[in-house]
Sequence to fold (402 residues):
Amino acid sequence: MTEETLTEPLPPVRHWPVLDPAGVDVDPVLAGLMEEGPVTRVGLPGGEGWAWLVTRMDDVRRVAEDSRFSRAAVLERQAVRPAPHLAPAHDTVGFLDPPDHTRLRRSIAPALTAHGVERVRESSRRMLDELVDGLLGDGPPADLTRAVLGPFPSLVVCELMGVPPADRQGMRTWARRVLTSPHDAGEQAREEMGAYFAELIDARLESTGEDIASLLGTAVGCREITLREAVDLAVLLQTGGEAVGDSSGQMFYVLLTRPELAERLRREPEIRPRAVEELLRYLPHRNALGPPRVVLEDLRINGVRMRAGDVVHVSYLAANRDPDVFPDPGSVDFSRSPNPHVAFGSGPHRCPGGPLTRLVTELLVDALLDRVPGLKLAVPADQVPFGKGTSLRGPESLPVTW
Ligand code: HEM
Fold:
């Protein structure tokens, strides 16, 4: 990455301090970089050096889908990252390239397709009804995050994983610690969760069950994957599921601060699936950027020359606001069609949790809009506390009344 060997002038490196943007606003640094160019360069608080940042939809998809951009190669680098503790992890699905990546993803694929997640729809609806019964029984005011939006996605992931009901509360505690605790405490929670999954999967090596622990057990039994790989994948899926709590917190923040949107969804329930897609497009699910990729051979993106060894970040949020793809991208438009958003990413690393997220959020929208008709914020919008210093963005609590 020596600049002298390049004949083209390079754009300046913009330092991105990764602070906590307000509410559901796009980080102002990212907004500036989106204006500045289709391809810019950034420095981030973790790692070393700089990385390319790609923000337009076509370019983002090209980088995410092209095998000349490697995730495994990130492990050999101190590549820039949004925070020092967000270091790449060896042997996890996010930092593998095909064919190992494909082998791991194959083992869990059937449980996470749109068809696969239907298996848990009715049991999930029952669990949600119980949570909403509790909310209504306790009466207003309430913290919607604590009562419903936080626990529900976690329960659904447990159901899909095959974690027995008695262990689900403990599972949620581990997942929150993995995601929010400083390095050592987070690492310890990850190890404790891993030890739990190792036992669960080991007990299901010959299972014919459809839950994910059984699928992983079968794959280990057939020697398609190792127990270690299975455990890492289980931990990643369980903690990935927590993302839905944060993003549905943001969704309800938007619906409660713009009551005309919630009203429309009450009046026109048939548009709810489309509305969920639009909110998935619009929301800034994560702070800053996800893991980068490393360029394996010299190539060009949108005319900009990248050299083998360069580090490249894509911003799916920026792509979801590309004005060439989404007219008036900063507005929430439930009639938007088509809506080819990339909230779940693109290419081989595309999030496996999309169908599950859709199931969980659609159930939440149905239950909360239909069963709690007068639902509204109990505090002014600017007093809703949002998480600080976290990679997933969302309200810490959502004080409501009805
Ligand atoms: C609102 C909810 C969610 C959003 C916005 C989201 C978004 C994403 C994105 C953008 C990626 C990265 C794609 C890339 O690296 O290019 C990803 C990866 C991943 N997500 Fe999600 N996700 C969500 C929910 C979930 C859920 C519910 C699960 C678990 C069931 C999950 C598990 C994962 C895993 C395991 C990966 C790594 C995939 C790989 O590298 O092959 N996510 N997600």
In short: Residues 287 and 391 are 5 Å apart (CA to CA). The chain has one domain: 3-401.
